[in-house]
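Lab meeting notes turned into a lecture example. A postdoc, R.K., suggested we walk through two folding results consecutively so the class can see how the record format repeats. The first protein's sequence and structure tokens come next.
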Amino acid sequence: EREPIELPDESPSWCVAELGGEAALTALREWRPDLIYAHGLTDPALEAAAIKIAPSIFFAHNYHGNCISGAKTFKSPVAVPCSRRFGWQCLLHFYPHRCGGLNPVTTWRQYRLQSNRHEVLHRYNAIVVFSEHMQREYAKYGLNPYLAYPAPDKTQSDESRGQLSITLRLSESRTGNWCS
């Protein structure tokens, strides 16, 4: 287990595990954030409620809402990346391609969880990714993800390479922390 990242003393922090979902949502609502920059909560219902509070951006680090196991990999007969669109048809491939575990109850629970997460993705104001691969992955579902750090091309100056391609203007700079 790692130590939490320390925030400035004046930064509020709400932990769902400590406060409970409703109390954390109430505290977040009362704080009145200008923007919610989310990285995927454990509970899709809580995530959906949180992103109603303010304009929200989701940072897609992984296949959140796009794969039952989260790995996007067929492991049998040989390991290969999966390029399928997420949907009920994934259940038909899960066991033959060894996408994840062998417990059908767990598979069904994970499918429902990822389906709920997938539905919440469409409620975000923006989705940000770090790679063209993830940009293509999320675009499959009618989402329009922003590529935060586009691959450098030869026409860019050294100074402009790696700069964020999106700019957010907020009325004031405030940070808070939410954990689930």
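The second example is placed directly after the first for contrast:
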Amino acid sequence: MTTLVVCLDRTDDVGRKTGLQSPIVGWEAVRALVTDIGLADPEDSGVNTLLETLRVGQNLRDENEEAIVAVVSGDRESMVSADRAVARQLDDLIAQHDPDSAVVVIDSGEDERLVPIVESRVQVDSVDRVVVRQARDIESTYYLLKQFLADEELRQTILVPLGLTLLVFPILAMVVAPAEGAAAITTVIGLFLLYKGFSIDEIITGFAHQVRESLYSGQVSVVTYVVAAGLTLVGFFVGALGVSNLDGSTGIGIPAVQFAFDSVPWLTMAGLTASAGRLLDEIIGEDPVRRSYLNLPFIAVAVGLVIRGFSAYFLEQQQLLSSIAVVETELGPLTVEGFSLAPGERLAVFVISAILVSLIGAWIATAVSSSDDDSTPGSGSGPGTGDGNPGTRPQSELTDGGPGSNQLASTTPPSADVEVVTDADSTEFSNGETETGQHAGSGSSDTRADSNTDSELESEGGGESDDGREHTQTAASEHEAEDR
């Protein structure tokens, strides 16, 4: 069993301090690297990480396991380029050594973000986090503060918000009441903590990257998303107008229902437009259309019908919405009398319509998925096969020594091989009739090695040996006559 003990360095401290290019592979190479980094920066925790890597590799070797010690570093340009550099080096290591598993050694949360990259390529049995023990005295505290102030990322994350808070609070205290100023500052700090806690900056960066990739690839969904955003704004605006027309003494529930009733048609169209664009991208692409994308437009319409029906029911109960009335209609000899739907009947119509729309979407998605599965190559029976898996039986007939290989061996005439071998031997040995005949007999026996019956093997081998001896004796007699 081969285990890859890899030390991860996302910020490329190894290359920056030693000038070496990663990956660095081998016990002696990593051991020499410990000395180089220790001389360049004795205070760096990376020295302890490298020593831990060597210790883990030594323990695995003591357990009679093959351990490959390596150091993988990222890039200093950006986090994306660093992750890609680590992934590329891991691919090279795996292709060269083919490890069965890996043990990852890290010393910081920054390096821990590389663990999923390793897990996507090889099985990770353990993640070894190195924590350096330090003295808890005043001097070490001062040293930690000094190191903290020297870190640019930590300064921007902690010192800048703290400085802004101390700067804004006196200004707010002079303009407004101190309590209101403290409340405003607390709100801003809370929003900042939520921003960092939920990694909103990374989400925004990923969204911008996805939008850029969509624009470069020419996806239809980019346009439909913009249209959907516009329809969403229109829906919010229409809902706000509907709420503004209500009486102010209606409380909170009725305005919320009125907002939902007025905005749901526009929001449903926005969802339908966005899902249709995503579905078009799937249809244009080379991969089969997934079932979820086929069903998504119908789900959007069904949800819109349900919300519209319930909001209309509540508004009609409050007499803020009139009932649906159907006027009298004449269709030739038929006359449809006018009627109006009660609130419950109206709600039932919307709910039943939503269920029908969702069922239609599920049926279409199932039908399209079934047709894609039937048209997939290799799913049905092909010509020349006895089952529904084409290509399997021809391969087994040629490779696994089954009936097909025996049949091919039986169709080969053994006498041709015996005759060729006998002629060649007779030209080389003029006085070796017996040896040539024995060789011919053994050749015929090898030719019949794939026969199914042992008795047939012996009889055929013996008969062909006699024929080979007679042919050899005849050739030798003719050769002696020519010599005389």
